Amino acid sequence: MRKIGKDKAGFIKSSITLMSGSIIAQILSVCFSPIMTRLYSEAEIGQYTLVLTAVSMFGAVICLRYDMAIVPEEDESKVFAIIKLSFLLDIILSVLVGFGYSVYCSIKGTIQSLSFAGIVFWTTILLLFTGLGHILLAYNNRNKEYKLMTSVHVIREVGRDVSLSGLGLLHFGTIGLLISQTLSVGLGLTRQSKSLRSKKVHWREIGNQELKEVAIKHKKQPMFSVPASFFNSFSYSVLNIYVSNLYGLQQLAYYSMSFRMLGLPLALISTNMSKVYFERASREYEQTGEFRKTFLMTTGLLGAIAIPMVVILFFLAPFLFGVFFGAPWRASGEYVRILAPMFGIRLVVSALSPTMTIIQKQNWDLYIQILFLLASSATYFLCGGGKGIETFLVLVSVMYSVVYIVYYIYMFLHTRKKV
Question: What number is the average pLDDT over the span 72-95?
Fold first, then answer.
């Protein structure tokens, strides 16, 4: 009993350490967001959002999810091979995806403030930094460097917000927004890699044979986790494209702001607790063959946060958005009211998603994510006949909530030993 209490205390302490930096970072983000809506036009924010759509679609899979194998890998010598493999994939795929997405944007003609070469440059560099950040975060998490992870989060947010404001005052437009985002994902990489660079002799000696071995050992990551993660990212990111196609850049700007504000609790709470959950659940699974205790403890902690969050947003979001972002942005608050229940469920389930990697059920994770893709596609086609954006968002909220509930039930059923 004493051991359980000690584990729970340690879990909460690790989560609070990570969240403390996120709290500071997200407070800064909220404070500077009203500045962004006053220094940049809706069209500029809309075009910026379309560029970032490439990162939100492909960023999580740019290393083919091999970075997810860094934490649970039992053989320390193989960790460095996984890191090197992930880095090589990050470089190659960032260039390929950046070029391909730029071709699509040029054909559609939606990002008029950037040339083809400009779109290639910004998407490639953002994807490259994002992938490197994932690799280093996984290594930091494996070594329980929670304070380092926290400080880097703050540094990145400060860099983004300060540069965003300064470039906005200088009327840099969409380019200013992209520069600030690049600084955000690039800052802190040197600090994150400090412990890894001190062991450079290990990963520099990694040859092609070692890379091949870890690629085969963790082949389920690219085979099943990549499609699942991509479909999950795509099912949300493609909504940016759908909103832009159906309702224009102005509505995309309002929608993106509502999505961004709803995403703050995910970045603040769910993402950080997910890292701790993954590490704790992996260890519990190794020692006991099950991890229901960690699963239910995480569910309870997140549920206690999600429920009051949804209630507050439902009643106050339109008023708060109108006050902080300006009267035109009250529309974003209305969109938040519609999407808040789904995001509350998502906050809980997303933090528990590493469950699929722990139990080696990435193939079933893929099937769940396909349901999200079908839900987003169905919503787009149902609203293609001239239905308003409110109807579009209601359908998204309802359909996605149902999928998340199914997802949670499936994970819960697989947290206990098979008899």
Answer: 90
- Burial string for 89-123 (b: 16+ CB within 10 Å, else e) reads bbbebbeebbeebbeebeeeebbeebeeebbbbbb
Question: Residue 32 — pLDDT band, cuts 50, 70, 90?
Answer: confident
Positive or negative: CA dihedral 391, 394, 376, 114: positive
The full DSSP string for 359-412 is TT-HHHHHHHHHHHHHHHHHHHHHTTTT--HHHHHHHHHHHHHHHHHHHHHHHH
Residue that is written with structure tokens 């690219």 in the block: 222
- Sequence spans of domains, the chain: 1-24+219-419, 40-217
Q: What is the pLDDT of residue 419?
A: 43
Nearby residues of 359 by Cβ (< 8 Å), 6 or more positions away: 285, 414, 415
| CA gap 83, 85 in Å, rounded | 5
CA 386, 390, 391: angle at the middle one, nearest 5? 60
The alpha carbon of residue 280 and the mean position of all alpha carbons in its chain are separated, in whole angstroms, by 20
pTM of this prediction exceeds 0.70:
yes
Instruction: Report the amino acid identity of residue 395.
Output: L
Nearest to 137 by CA among 6, 305, 261, 22: 22
Average pLDDT over residues 73-96: 90
Q: Which are the contacts of 306, defined by CB distance < 8 A and separation ≥ 6? A: 265, 344, 345, 347, 348
Residue 353: closest CA among 214, 236, 218, 228: 228
As a whole number of angstroms, the distance between CA 359 and CA 238 comes to: 29
Q: Classify residue 74 by burial, with Cβ atoms within 10 Å: 0-12, 13-18, 19+.
A: exposed
Query: pLDDT grade, residue 224 (50/70/90)?
Result: confident
Q: What angle do CA 403, 409, 414 make, to 5 degrees?
A: 130
Tokens, residue 150:
């926290």
The confidence band for 12, taking pLDDT boundaries of 50, 70 and 90, is: low
Length of the chain: 419
Alpha-carbon distance of 235 to 373, in angstroms, equals 5
